[in-house]
Design a protein that fits this description.
It is a single chain. β20, α12 and β21 form a beta-alpha-beta unit. The strands form 6 sheets. Strands 8, 9, 10, 11, 12 and 13 form a 6-stranded antiparallel sheet that branches. The protein has a 6-stranded mixed sheet with strand order 15-16-17-20-21-24, with helices on both faces. It is an alpha+beta fold. The chain contains 17 helices and 24 strands.
Length: 533
């Protein structure tokens, strides 16, 4: 099959509104006048609702054209999109040659799509539909693929050509991602199978289960009078689920109590905990696993609760941000703002006017100026780097660990008509000192890369080298926009995964507890002092 079109034919089909009219359905537009409903007519070709597919393609690629950080040539974008079909059938190829876009299957041309205007998204969407119809006729694997598989292949092909962080989520995955970011409806518990039912392994603070006074290690034996003994974990979870406001009566056994207790819980929106904390001798440690809708609230609550429990004030705070991949931008802004009286938090810049944003601290320091340190490693990224840069550049906290990941880009989430979602890189972030950290990362004040040293060794090294290396580390304030330069700078304190390495926290605790050490690593003449023990 050979599909050849001209720009005039393409625009005519688009104006007609029946994209499904392809070569076989050109008459589908006949009789469509001004009174035609705006909703697209369902037209099925090769098992696909072509109009629905077109809506998704036009919306998705329109968002990319308008919002992507780099202005992508539309013809190259759609070429990459069609090349993505090889993830469904490796025999399919999209080749740009001689000014034309050719789609082949097993070396045979199945679509000669020509070229539309470089900015004509509807025309390119129609060309893509023509290629999909042709490929489904030629390839059994393509014919078996549903619309979601095709969206994944096409958008993954296009977005991968843009940058490593733009991505497409199918309808199902988009729902799951939104639940992680925004919360889930349920009891707010994590359970595992137990002989008598479901053992509570974790409880969300303030969730329905916690409000019903269930506790860790309770075993839920019945839900609404139905025994959970011998049931699968999936079956148990279904019986604990329901719509928001649903009442569930639970029977639970508690270790050490002879009689089971019966409680009633009302299902509600529950946002997973991403923050844990501990208080010891006036020193608060707060660990942030990621940034969701609850994170800033949870951090503030951890600080104010610790202040109350410690007689109104604290000796210091350590933020453990190791392995934190990031999350919601606004939550990172709010967490940084918790600890700053004033100053810049972060600046964003991008091609779309809405991407250019400036954030400054204005809430006041909830910690009342007590010494702070933050611990990072090579997997601390994105929203985490916003918090770290704000605290470091505003001299609010000493940073301990290794160079961070260096994901200095911000993604805009765009919902598509099918319920899927595009996370599209649309902005870069610039630290308060004006550094674009994308591909570079953040240099800690105290570098702990390499074999773990003792706390005393690290402290001795701090005193020995406090006045050295200033010129080298000032290079981080104005690095050339060159991946080779970035890689060279990153070797000053190589990124490593430190996860739960104890010495990193011990060094942070020591610095927070010693004003002299804090002064060594945060004094004004050396904005970033990295010392490798």
């Amino acid at each position: 099959m050979k599909i050849i079109h001209s720009g005039t034919q393409l625009s005519g089909l688009i104006r007609c509104g029946a994209v499904a009219a392809l070569a076989l359905m050109l008459g589908a537009c006949a009789g469509m006048g001004r009174d035609t409903p705006r909703a697209p007519r369902r037209v099925i070709i090769g098992g696909l609702d072509i109009n629905a597919v077109n809506d998704v393609l036009v919306r998705g690629f329109g968002e990319i054209k308008d919002r992507a950080f780099e202005d992508p040539p539309i013809d190259d974008l759609f070429t990459a999109a069609l090349a993505g079909l090889k993830s469904i059938d490796p025999e399919i190829r999209a080749i740009s040659t001689g000014g034309r876009l050719i789609v082949t299957y097993r070396g045979r041309t199945i679509g000669d799509l020509g070229r539309a205007s470089r900015s004509d998204i509807p025309a390119w969407s129609l060309a893509t539909l023509q290629a999909l119809v042709a490929s489904r006729k030629a390839s059994p694997l393509m014919l078996a693929a549903d619309a979601e598989a095709i969206y994944m292949a096409v958008f993954a092909g296009a977005l991968t050509a843009l940058d490593p962080y733009s991505r497409y989520a199918t309808r199902e995955n988009a729902v799951r991602n939104r639940l992680v970011r925004d919360g889930v409806i349920g009891l707010g518990v994590r359970v595992v199978l137990e002989d008598d039912g479901a053992l509570i392994q974790a409880i969300v603070d303030g969730g329905p289960a916690a409000l019903a006074e269930l506790e860790l290690d309770d075993v839920i034996t019945h839900a609404n009078g139905v025994s959970l003994t011998g049931r699968s974990l999936a079956d148990i979870r279904r019986r604990l689920d329901g719509a928001i406001g649903t009442t569930v009566t639970l029977t639970a056994k508690r270790p050490g109590e002879p009689e089971p207790r019966v409680v009633t819980a009302e299902l509600d929106l529950v946002v997973p905990d991403t923050v844990t904390s501990s208080l010891s001798d006036g020193l608060l440690e707060v660990r942030i696993a990621s940034f969701n809708q609850r994170t800033a609230y949870a951090v503030e609550k951890a600080v104010t609760t610790a202040q109350h429990d410690n007689g109104g004030t604290l000796k210091g705070i350590v933020l453990d941000l190791r392995g934190d991949p990031g999350g919601l931008l606004d939550q990172a802004i709010d967490v940084a703002d918790l600890f700053l009286e004033s100053g810049t938090i972060i600046t964003l810049h991008g091609r779309h006017p809405g991407a250019n944003q400036y954030y400054a601290a204005n809430r006041g320091d909830v910690a009342e100026g007590v010494p702070m340190a933050a611990v990072i490693d090579g997997r601390s990224a994105s929203a985490t780097e916003i918090v770290v840069a704000a605290l470091q550049d505003n001299k609010r906290a000493a940073i301990v660990g290794t160079v961070s990941w260096g994901k200095g880009s911000v993604q805009s989430l765009r919902r598509l008509p099918n319920g899927g979602e595009i996370a599209l890189t649309w902005a870069r972030m610039v630290t308060p000192r004006g550094v674009d950290v994308h591909g570079l990362g953040l240099l800690p004040d105290v570098c702990l890369s390499g074999a773990p040293a003792s706390v005393s060794d690290v402290v001795d090294q701090l005193f020995a080298e406090a006045a050295t290396g200033d010129a080298a580390h000032r290079r981080w304030l104005s690095p050339a926009d060159d991946p080779a330069v970035h890689e060279s700078l990153r070797m000053d304190c190589p990124a490593e995964t430190h996860a739960d390495r104890i010495v990193d926290l011990e060094v942070a605790r020591r610095i927070v507890s010693d004003p002299v050490l804090m002064g060594l690593v945060t004094f004004d003449d050396a904005p970033q002092l990295a010392v490798i023990p």
